Hints:
Number of helices: 0
Helix content: under 10%
Number of strands: 10
Amino acid sequence: LDVYNVQSGLHRAAAPRAHAGPVAGVQTDALNRFVVSAGVDGWLRFWRLADLAPLGELAAGAGVGRLALHRDSGLLAAACDDLQLRVYDAGTRQLVRQLGPLGGVAT
């Protein structure tokens, strides 16, 4: 993961070994305090946006194919390769709901 200043293009921070494989999704909270990254390695990792310092991680139970964050409620949805949709509270980093198995890949 890398953070760049959008206006100047300057590189601000890096987390070179964020995941053991490709990163499937990246989301920021409403106040741009933290970033959540999801990988096909099955981990959700939380980072401080300013310097990409690690804040915590969650095992999703399977590789993550898609990631979405509802900024108003702070709910984070991870569509996993085992056809489960897992919903987490991004503030407490706890699993809130698990839905599935889905009839196909979540889009």
